[in-house]
Design brief:
Keywords: ATP-binding, Cell inner membrane, Cell membrane, Membrane, Nucleotide-binding, Transport. By secondary structure, the chain is an alpha/beta fold. Helices cover 38% and strands 23% of the residues. It contains nine helices and ten strands. Helix 3 crosses helix 4 and helix 3 runs parallel beside helix 5. Bound molecules: adenosine-5'-diphosphate (ADP) and magnesium ion. Magnesium ion binds next to helix 1.
Length: 247
């Protein structure tokens, strides 16, 4: 299918500094509706900072522009609208420990969207089934495995019906035997047409699931291409060096 619509996420000249230390050096990136973009690169290259700027969890320089679904990402009243459209899944799950799994998934739609409780609960059960943990609904997060907690976090993000889901190394904190179950859920999601931007060290997953892979180094977007282009025929020496080290 031809993609002619305006990009869902548009990033132009994204620059970000901590004091005198520049972390992002003028990143340009468009993400189309339904696209799955995997961001790879060495530790400290600015991957987390890049995706955290998309929903303004990090402030960025005033001459940079990010738009999500046509809305300019900037401090002010429009930011709540952006954040309602952008779901985020972190390395460390960040579930509410004092709420059941079910409540974790219900709470944002009820508080932010004013969804009635019965409707929020129906939706939450549907999402928990979708990530394969219906039977854990009444438990507290602390009683779940890391892989189960991360699947709850994905269900919780989906509950707000976001236009785009951002993932920051969602499997890096997991024991190796739990990585697969989370990647399986993400793979299934990608197949449903959800727009996803995924920072990951899982190169096999990126190769299999990404429409596009982006390699970052030193706060720059060094190279972007299809998985085949990036993994089998990288153009830049830095990309080749990184892949040689991790593959
Ligand atoms: P990655 O996710 O690719 O590992 P990050 O986006 O976390 O990279 O970090 C990019 C750079 O910014 C690193 O050099 C890191 O040390 C620096 N950095 C991140 N957060 C802060 C902060 N709050 N204050 C100062 N420097 C930071
Ligand atoms: Mg990071």
């Amino acid at each position: 299918m031809e993609k002619t619509a305006a990009p869902l996420i548009s990033i132009r000249g994204l620059t970000k500094a901590y004091g005198t230390f520049t972390v992002l050096h003028g990143i340009d990136l468009d993400v189309a509706e339904g696209e799955v973009v995997c961001v790879i690169g060495p530790s400290g290259s600015g991957k987390s900072t890049l995706i955290r700027c998309i929903n303004h969890l990090e402030a960025f320089s005033a001459d940079s522009t990010i738009t999500v679904d046509g809305i300019r990402v900037a401090p002010g009243p429009a930011l709540a609208k952006v954040r309602a459209e952008v779901g985020m899944v972190f390395q460390s799950f960040n579930l509410f420990p004092h709420m059941t799994v079910l409540k974790n998934v219900m709470i944002a739609p009820m508080r932010v969207r004013k969804t009635p409780e019965a409707e929020a609960q129906r939706k939450a059960r549907e999402l928990l089934a979708r990530v394969g943990i219906s039977e854990q609904a009444e438990k507290f997060p602390g009683h779940l495995s890391g892989g189960q907690q991360q699947r709850v976090a994905i269900a919780r993000a989906l509950a707000m019906e976001p236009r785009v889901l951002l993932f920051d190394e969602p499997t890096s904190a997991l024991d190796p035997e739990m990585v697969g179950e989370v990647l399986d859920v993400m793979r299934k999601l990608a197949g449903t047409g959800v727009t996803m931007v995924i920072v990951t060290h899982e190169m096999g997953f990126a190769r299999q699931v990404a429409d596009r892979v982006i390699f970052m180094d030193g706060g720059k977007l060094v190279e972007s291409g299809t998985p085949t282009e990036i993994f089998d025929n990288p153009q830049e020496a830095r990309t080749r060096g990184f892949l040689r080290a991790v593959l």
